[in-house]
Design a protein that fits this description.
alpha/beta, TIM Barrel, nine-stranded parallel β-sheet, 43% helix
Length: 215
């Protein structure tokens, strides 16, 4: 199955992206495993984590059948290549960089650049982006998101990232928001796998209650 199609399938079932900023190679398998067990199947390991490519490689080797593992905070084409070599299937950035998006697509990876304005969103799509990451999400109220969505292609997933909590998810039910990226409210460095498992389950339940889960 093509990677964008697999992403769509996993994301539609449970539209959450777990962002593990600060995870280490030694704990990556346990943390990722706990998240997958809760029902979240898309995992991002940011490149400003300790030895991120080692963590990506370990997570991919262990969980590539159950989940898609991506690299986050990818800022240049060279790191897109390194992430691909480690086995990453998704490239997430905080910004729109034409070269990063195009390199991601040249390597058949799912491209998820960060956008804040319609101009950035359309520039990302023109470069080949598969998913739009609205970041930082704390700055975008629902009325603004609805205005953006009115002019953006409906089939493109729109993911809100930044400041998302289990409590704030309900406010976006029945909105153009397709799903969420969750970072520090799910995982912080030093957390145990059991703590992350509990937080993951709380998020999954919040998504179900808000009607985001699709079976």
């Amino acid at each position: 199955m093509a990677r964008p199609l697999r992403f769509d399938e996993l994301f539609r079932t449970m539209p959450l992206i777990a962002i593990l900023r600060g995870v280490t190679p030694a704990e990556s398998e346990d943390i990722v495993g706990a998240i997958i067990e809760s029902g979240i199947r898309i995992i991002e390991i940011p490149l400003n984590s300790p030895e991120p490519f080692a963590s990506i490689k370990k997570a991919v080797r262990r969980f590539s059948v159950e989940a898609m593992i991506g690299a986050g905070t990818v800022l240049n084409p060279e790191d897109v290549e390194r992430a691909a070599e480690a086995g990453a299937e998704i490239i997430v950035s905080p910004n729109v960089d034409d070269a990063v998006v195009r390199k991601s697509k040249a390597l058949d990876l799912v491209s998820v650049p960060g956008v804040m304005t319609p101009s950035e969103a359309f520039a990302a799509l023109a470069a080949g982006a598969d998913v739009l990451k609205f970041f930082p999400g704390e700055l975008l109220v629902l009325s603004v998101i609805r205005a953006y969505a009115a002019v953006l292609p409906k089939h493109v997933p729109k993911v809100l990232v930044g400041g998302v909590t289990a409590e704030s998810i309900r406010a976006f039910a029945n909105s153009p928001v397709s799903g969420f990226g969750i970072g520090s409210s799910l995982y912080k460095p030093g957390m145990s796998a059991s703590e992350v498992s509990e937080r993951s389950r709380i998020f999954v339940e919040a998504m179900r209650l808000a009607g985001f889960e699709k079976t």
